[in-house]
Amino acid sequence: MSIPLAALEEIIDSSGIAPRIELLLPIGVRRRQLRVRTLLAGMMLSQAGQRPAHLTRVRDALTALPEPDQVRLGVLEDWKTGPHQLTYRQTERTFGLVTDALAKDVPDGLPSPALARICDNLLEASIPGQFKDASTSLAVDWTDVETFSRPPSRGSSDCADPEASWGHRSGGGPGQDSELFFGYYASAATMMREEHGPPVPELARRITVCSCRHDPARALVPVLTAMPGHGIPLGDVLADSGYAHRDAEAWAIPLRGAGAQLVQDLHPSDRGPKGTHHGAIIANGNLYCPATPPPLLQLGPLARDATPEQAATHDTQAAELARHKLGKITCDDADGYHRVMCPAVMSKIRCPLRPVSMTLTRDRPEILTPPEHPPACCTQQTITVPPQTCAKTAQKHDYPSKQHRKSYARRTGAERTFSTAKDPASNNIARGWTRLMGLAPLALWLTCLLAVRNQRILAAWDARQDHNARRAAAGLPPKTRRRRKTHTDLATAGTPP
Amino acid sequence: MPPGGDGGGLAAGYIARWRPSSVSPQAAAFARDVIAAVAPAGRERSKNLLWAAAKLADYAIGLGLDPVPEVLLHPSVIERFARCAPGLSGVARRTLRTNLRFIARRVAPALYPQDAALPRERAKQPYSPAEIAGFLALAGAQPVLSRRMRAAGLVCLGAGAGLIRGDLRAVRGTDVICRSGGVIVAVRGARPRAVPVLSRYHDRLLAAARFAGTAPVCGGADPGRRNITTPLTRSLSGGTGLPRLDTSRLRATWLTEVADLLGLATFMHAAGITCSQRLGDLLAALDPADEATAVALLGAAR
């Protein structure tokens, strides 16, 4: 599918980045034939044409345009010697100037503020106005981007891409947990539907790139926390355990401060009981009654291949665990403190230490062996919880619970974003996709790629909406994706028709 | 030995081998342990108790409770299981709770202190026709007319219309009416109704009613006073060979006679019903017949 040049030009113009970059570039004696606007259009055209991110491909894309467009964009100019078409050398020159202007004076593996702003603006401009406020939920993830440079030989640090570094990624081989690669981490935030909202196109809204010597979670935080300042409120942030396992100061606290509600998987090391507060058990981001049955506190997330019966059992256990949770009865104050109440006082369980609760009906759990020496959480009606308690693991829903599972299932949109950028049939950011080295060129190319990818998603979205409208007119329900058959389904299927 | 029972030794073997596929191995192990401690007599009883214990354990282990008798056989756990366990019919819930309490009383007796046995009320013994005739004769032998009339009225209202307590005390002479081909007592009070009087009491009751006029048939001025019938009862007691007069037994006499008239025993025997609870549930949806039909059915025709 080709994306019209006009659509790409509209994105570049509405982002307003071309004039800003032009201002950063040195002014020479001779006027540059290739303007930044045209360069960006060429980069996006090359990605729309599913070409590699090579400057030759940029020139190919520009010179393949109809002649009026070439003249309008300055690809074809009248020189004293006659008409002159853009050369590769001119493309390389302008691109080099742009990346030099956007890179840090002393490269440290993180994007410069100017580059970060450029990337934000370009990607934001690729989202149509009607979808800008469609959802505040974002699914975030990072992926590996291997540099074209060969890694430094053992014992040295000399290589063609000094900003790149060694990082870990999931291994591709059988039984291989992870493997090393030399390059960068690219993080993206993808728009997902609200928890109970209508579907929205899964558009990449933010991207950042950092060297593997930096923590990708910490690198993404300033990008996300800057969004409210740009008029984009933060809602649910769906993240895997790689983010949730970071120090609270590195991930959870700044995002909560920016108004985000975390929906994340907990790292196995963060799950289960982790100490007490006034006698209440700290587990999975909540406080629980000290007499909570231990097996419930060890409850982990539901396996991906769980049967409906297993899911129902898991939900029952999660609901039982929630009955033992100390309920939050106040919002966080300015310093992050809040108060929670004993579950027996809240009539969720029956406890001999709370005589009134023993008059409740017996469909509630009963504490059979209350603590011999009741702690504060059993003697006081409420206790105060400081911000450092559960700072890392507290999130929107109880973990694990049915609500959390349903909400967290939206996170897979982040995986789909990267899968479209690593598709061997179209754009594939594997090693060799670009031979330009350094963080600035890579970030610029990746941003162009995701902006183009957003246009593909929008086109598919529009086509699906039209199709559903036609079906509705014919009295048919909207078409839903068919569940992929598993080996188990095939094995248990009946006789063939 | 009960049907299906193979004796204690065989039951123990059955318990040890019990490994159903419908419950988890952990729940089955718990069930085997506790039922072995219960030591039921036969195989069928063992199976029922094993099933109850295993279902409880399956439910409770899923809620994170320790599979030990002191926890799972706690009254609150059993009660919660009986109320909240999914996928059980009402009958199964009652049966399981009964069986689980039985198990718990033997395995964890500290959790179930034995209740002191208290007497249970049963239906009163009806009087025989000879005894009723004796009471009527005794009433007729009272020295004063008013007491003769009141005593006869008491016996007739009790044995002829089944009235007791407040219903009995509140009946006035004007409430005894000849209507619909028989004699009817219009009962006031909490459950106002028209009660046909058995025909052999008609004459005596009508005489007593005429004598009372607008006053209560059993005497007194205020039916709210509860000791109106006591002097009458006392005056009819002490006869030779007669038991003490009891209005509840008079009502039982009327109930027995009317049930016999209706063929109720035959009907319940044919229906296989021994308890009237479900019969009451069914009758709640049916309308009673009109007064004339009731008079004819209940032996009140003149």
Structural description of this entry:
The complex is a heterodimer of chains A (497) and B (302). With 497 residues, chain A is an alpha+beta fold. Chain A contains 18 helices and 14 strands. In chain A, strands 3, 4, 5, 6, 7 and 8 form a six-stranded mixed sheet that branches. Chain A has a three-stranded antiparallel sheet with strand order 9-10-11. Chain A is elongated, with a radius of gyration of 27 Å. Chain B has helices spanning 7-17, 25-38, 43-62, 69-72, 75-84, 90-107, 129-140, 145-161, 165-170, 202-212, 229-236, 247-262, 264-271, 277-283, 291-297, and strands spanning 176-179, 182-187, 193-196. In chain B, strands 1-2-3 form a three-stranded antiparallel sheet, with helices on both faces. In chain B, helix 5 packs antiparallel against helix 6. Chain B is elongated, with a radius of gyration of 29 Å. In chain B, 33% of the residues are buried. The model of chain B is unreliable at 1-5 (pLDDT under 50). The chains are: A alpha+beta (497), B mainly alpha (302). The interface between A and B is medium-sized, with 19 and 14 residues.
Overview in brief:
Chain A is α+β, with helices and mostly antiparallel strands.
Describe the SSE topology:
The complex is a heterodimer of chains A (497) and B (302).
Chain A: H1 5-15, H2 17-24, H3 36-48, H4 55-63, H5 67-73, E1 76-79, E2 82-85, H6 88-102, H7 113-125, H8 129-132, E3 137-146, E4 165-170, E5 178-192, E6 204-211, H9 216-225, E7 236-239, H10 241-244, H11 252-257, E8 261-264, E9 273-277, E10 280-283, E11 286-288, H12 294-297, H13 308-323, E12 327-328, E13 338-341, H14 376-379, E14 382-385, H15 402-408, H16 412-421, H17 439-473, H18 487-492
Parallel strand pairs in A: 3-7, 7-8
Antiparallel strand pairs in A: 1-2, 3-5, 4-5, 5-6, 9-10, 10-11, 12-13, 13-14
Helix pairs in contact in A: 1-3, 1-7, 3-4, 3-17, 4-6, 7-17
Chain B: H1 7-17, H2 25-38, H3 43-62, H4 69-72, H5 75-84, H6 90-107, H7 129-140, H8 145-161, H9 165-170, E1 176-179, E2 182-187, E3 193-196, H10 202-212, H11 229-236, H12 247-262, H13 264-271, H14 277-283, H15 291-297
Antiparallel strand pairs in B: 1-2, 2-3
Helix pairs in contact in B: 1-3, 2-3, 3-6, 5-6, 7-8, 8-10, 8-11, 8-12
